[in-house]
Amino acid sequence: MDFSALPDLASRAFGGGVVHANDEFFAAADHLVLPEAPSHAPKTFDHKGQVYDGWETRRRRTPGHDFAIVRLGAPGIVHGVDIDTAFFTGNFPPYASVDAVELSGYPGPEELAAADWVEILPKSPLKGDGRNLYPVTDRRRFTHVRLTIFPDGGVARLRVHGEVVPDPELLPKVFDVAAAEYGATVVDCSNKFYGNPQRMLMPGLARNMGDGWETSRRRDDGNDWVLVRLAAPAVLRFGDLDTSHFKGNAPGWATLTGIDARDRTFELLPRVALRPDTPHRFALWKAPEVTHVRLDIFPDGGMARLRLLGRADRTFLRARLGR
């Protein structure tokens, strides 16, 4: 599987952030975790020089290297990193490495400096103005990563792709088990011509019509659908089907079907009408614990968000955490 298709655990969309950087003279390290693709406006200068949408350190005149520490917005198992040097041409670092650590709570710079870091990417070459994708084989759970660049320079984005593994002790009894930030993911869908269905599982409200799932127009008698693997097996009670921003292209109707570990199916929501540009909340039919949910839309169209509220199997969550 292409690891870059997995969620970006470091993304600001999940609450990721840069907690410490030793140098950010030309451009702030906070840019590293922005979910948007980097941009560039040539010949745009401020008092420190060309403005970059990324992290850029000053030119080193002494031995050493620069680093930035990122708190993962969604702790989990890292499958690969993408060190993107987009638009950094004569000022990108020639090498980089990545270390990781699992720490509880909210450690500060002193605790992070004293932590027992694990190397997940050894010192590796970087190309300028492009993505540098490296797989990671360590399958332990991590909460923070440290990007080190040798010796200095600029990096636009750091993507840390992997599997989300939440701490069940920090989750309420009832939560959104279809949320990507807790480990839910789309495993199959009929069509994603205009928008990837994984966007429906992201935190917060959709910002616009492009921040959701949208299919092409159907010219047959079928319908479109998406299959979601829940963050954990769960007994579901409520569903939010949000068509915000989809006005002339919202689905006309929708259904929800639960699937358990034995591939038995259960109707959770019979066919209901949907309105354009509207958040809908529905009480779901009582059913046994399910592991997957299929959303069918009729006949096609766009959905901004899908939320499924229920009680998750805590034993399953603790087992994923290794407890």
UniProtKB/TrEMBL annotation:
Allantoicase domain span: 15-164, 183-311
Reactions mediated catalytically: allantoate + H2O = (S)-ureidoglycolate + urea
Swiss-Prot/TrEMBL GO biological process terms: allantoin catabolic process; purine nucleobase metabolic process
Q: Which UniProt keywords apply?
A: Hydrolase, Purine metabolism
GO molecular function: any one? allantoicase activity
Q: Which PANTHER family match?
A: ALLANTOICASE (PTHR12045), INACTIVE ALLANTOICASE-RELATED (PTHR12045:SF3)
HAMAP family in the cross-refs: Allantoicase (MF_00813)
Q: Which family does it belong to?
A: Belongs to the allantoicase family.
The molecule here is called Probable allantoicase
UniProt organism field: Actinoplanes philippinensis
Q: Which gene encodes it?
A: alc
